[in-house]
Amino acid sequence: MTLRPAPLVLALAVAVAACGAPPLTPPTPPAAPAPPVAERPPEAPSPPAAPPEAPARPSGVVVDAAALPGPAREFRAAWIATVANIDWPSRSGLSTAQQQAELRSLLDRAVEVGLNAVVFQVRPFADALYFSPYEPWSEVLTGRQGQAPSPWYDPLQFAVDEAHARGLELHAWFNPYRASHPTQRGPRDGQHVSVLRPDLVRTYGDYTWLDPGEPEATDHSMRTILDVVQRYDVDGVHLDDYFYPYPVEKRGRRVSFPDDASYARAVAAGETLGRDDWRRQNVDRFVERLYREVKAEKPHVKVGISPFGIWRPGHPAGVRGFDQYAEIYADARRWLREGWLDYLAPQLYWSIESRGQPFPALLDWWGQQNDRGRHLWPGLYDSRTLPDVGGYEPEQIVRQVRLVRDDAEATGTVHFSMKALLDRYSSLGRNLGTGPYAEPALVPASPWLGATPPAPPAVRVEGGRAVWAQEGSEPVWQWVVRTRTRGAWSWRVVGGGVQSMALPAGAEAVAVSAVSRVGVESPARRVDVARP
């Protein structure tokens, strides 16, 4: 994400042999001495084991969950930006307990508003908000790059655990190329890529940038992302709009990104493309490789990208504005058409009434490019409801949510950013939570990632509670618990670790279904509640 008013704010170490430094390892506490083994007399032989009882046949009947009233399918997410301490932590240098309390509060608020996912920024500028063997701790945590939180904890692991406990997906948000940010105050750590491998980094304006034309630079970023996919139970990997940097000017003239050396090496190795097409090819190859390698590690982890909201001026007709295809070499339309992502969240950061960048026309145009049927979840600029940004009344965002719901292709939205959903800054969160997000929603299914539904659970009613248990081997991410009272169905969505729920007074029946990690719902098992 960015601190500029329109686009979002938008890689590890090269191989250990290349950087000459061993990977870092987390502190390992000394092992406690093993307790002495108490001597005891030999036990009497056990009697022969009784033959196992046949498992009880599940009660109730299996019904098609889609035939029952139930939750809508809608992605409802917010970005939690950490760069410049936009959303979390509120400032650097907070204690571990304070950081954790703030993050819990944000996640609680996400649930109150009716969200079902958060997009958590973990790599703002070639640093890490988690323990990384490749990159230093981010200064947004402690005020000094490379300094771990004290007492030690892993913020990403904490965020994953706390989000999942609340039934929220957590998508890890990476900036693949940015290596510094103007808001940085302290010195760079010795393990930062700009120190270890300055030959891979370019200075451009107020930023430093990993050169997308340097293969070792892209390997570096890819390694950091895949490390997170391998070690953390994240639900998605997310990139924003920063690929090549947004252009800067000096004395009224456009400054070219300083990649003469990397382009010359590519040409010497046989590259025949002009520089602009070569730059786009560099980004395309990164995006395609990211999708392929994430799926090789964990097929259920979604890959999402949130590009600038205009592909090119004139698409659709009448649209004016920044040309991401020509200026930052991002061909987001191709990524969507090729299926190199599971969702696209174009930043539609303009009002419904905007003439040069009309929200409805841009939304419709992006839907028309969705040849592969991927998720289209546009980004909304909630921050314009904040007093220090301005420009929107909260109702503008509510209207945009409703407009997205009416679109033939889009199935959700992402809100920038979480701060704008807090009551102390805006009434927007309250308006969403009591309006379009008043009822819970399931994240739309991604059947191309796995269409096998879980088995219907075993369900019983005892002591005024519905009790259920997983059947079969397909992992369960969530349960949908429907209850019928006075002939009307109501429902709740609870986490996969929950296995019982109190029934409302007068409940006549309960039906429980399982939802897989990629959102596929099982048939429901319905059990009638005996009348006293």
UniProtKB/TrEMBL annotation:
InterPro entries: Divisome_Glycosyl_Hydrolase, GH, GHL10
Glycosyl hydrolase-like domain mapped to chain residues: 74-370
Signal peptide: 1-20
Bias-annotated ranges (Pro residues): 23-55
Stretches the record annotates as Disordered: 23-58
Gene3D superfamilies: Glycosidases
Domain of life: Bacteria
Keyword set, alphabetical order: Signal
Pfam families: GHL10
PANTHER family hit by this protein: GLYCOSYL HYDROLASE DIGH (PTHR43405:SF1)
Protein name as annotated: Family 10 glycosylhydrolase
